[in-house]
Amino acid sequence: MKVMYTAEQKRVAVATFRRYKSYAKTLRVLGYPSRHVLFDWVRGSRPGCRKVTARALYRRYAWQVKLGAVNRMLGGESVIDIAADLAVTNHMLLYQWMHAWHLDGEEGLMTRSERKQREGYKTRAQLEASLPDDPVELRRLAARLLVDKAVLEQELDLVKKDAGVIPGQLTNTSKTIITQSLRGRLPLTMLLDSTGLRANSYQYARTALARPDRLAGLRVRVHEIARSSGFTYGSPRIWTALRRAGTVVSEKVVRRVMKQEHIPVHYAHRKRHYSSYEGESTPAPKDLVKRDFHAKEPNRLWLTDVSEFAARNGKVYLSPVIDCYDGKVVAYTTSRTPDKQLTQSMLEQAIGTLPARRTNFLILHSDRGGHYRAAEWIEALNAAGVTRFMSRKGCSPDNAACEGFFGRMKTEMFHERTWNTTGELETAIHRYMAFYNNQRIKTSLGGITINEHRNQLESTLTN
To answer: Biological process GO terms, please (predicted)?
Structure first.
């Protein structure tokens, strides 16, 4: 039974509360009303307070409204303000919603009918019962579903052909391609409605597709350059190669063409690195290079290291000498085992490239691997007048330029490929070394190869 109170009773109750400043004492003195009703009377008597608008006694709230109120409560908003916004007469109802949500989540906020509606149709009879009875409406619905099915099939075909296409997020060009392919057997207006494409956007994209491809020749040249580099060139180097060939185009256009044509570029995957450290077997010289890997002339600062390349039936170890002047590979050797003969034969080849009369001071920098602590290595360097420097123990950045060479090499010719045999891998390494010195474009040299840079230097010295 709902108790009704007069305006005089409300006024007395509010005045009593203001005198005692306590809800409990006011209720004990007057004996009425309930605590929540008194709270609403006191709040409503304050100046400028937002009053709750009375609603129908049995008003029902959708579960989405309840969930929104719960989220606002979790966000820290006042329960009284939320109740006023939703026209909830008793703000305690919001606490009930919060409690139901904590127990059962969203389903706790739903009525039985809302739960059934959310569960969908479990039987064929339920689904058929939900369909309209009007035959005209059924034919209209069937036609729409037929168009949607055809559009979805074409969209899936595009996804299979182009991995960059995201279902549900097609560009206007892709939507136009789908519409054009279906236009001969389905109404154009229904196709545009199904794809969400406006008529003016369709006409614009259709006209653009009808134009001849002005980048057709460029696409062929980009494919040729990428293939000749073993798919090691990214857009900057391909753009440089095009510029050298006399083709003037923006690098952004090259990048876009590579993306559209799905031209791959090999990238590295980090794996365990080979280590040749065998302890402090002989005294190590100080590192006076101090990570300054720049040289003003050839044969002034060399770097060396050993790296491994794994095939399915074994490993190949590479030992090169890099000239810091322009990054040239002075000499290199490969072997199936990382023994001292690998580095010693490489050193003999590198020393053999030095001119007979050498006036500059040559430094050979390495890490602290056991190959570079051997007596044969030290004797060969002393006999050739080459000074050896070493990195600090366990500090690869001290030999970063040589590590960077290995990283670029593995990115461009080793990773993203399957190497079945070590013989196949050794052949690829020899081929890459020739490519690196003679054909590979270096942007740090102004877009020319190392061999061209050395030829320019020799011609300058001769003149």
So the answer is: DNA integration
Q: Where are the domains of the chain?
A: 7-45, 63-118, 131-210, 215-261, 301-462
Distance CA 147, CA 149 (A): 5
Q: Quote the CA–CA distance of 343 and 433 in Å, as a whole number.
A: 17
Would you state the pLDDT for residue 56? 45
| Full-model pTM | 0.45
Cβ-contact 166, 157 below 8 angstroms: no
Half-sphere CA count of 180, side-chain side, radius 13 A: 14
Tell me whether residue 24 is exposed, middle or buried, using C-beta atoms within 10 angstroms of its C-beta: 0 to 12, 13 to 18, 19 or more: exposed
Q: What is the mean pLDDT of residues 96-115?
A: 87
* Mean pLDDT of all residues in 245-253: 89
According to DSSP, residue 108 is labeled G
CATH topology of domain 301-462: Nucleotidyltransferase; domain 5 (3.30.420)
Q: What is the Cα–Cα distance from 24 to 34, expressed in whole angstroms?
A: 10
Assess contact for 98 and 72: CB atoms under 8 A: no
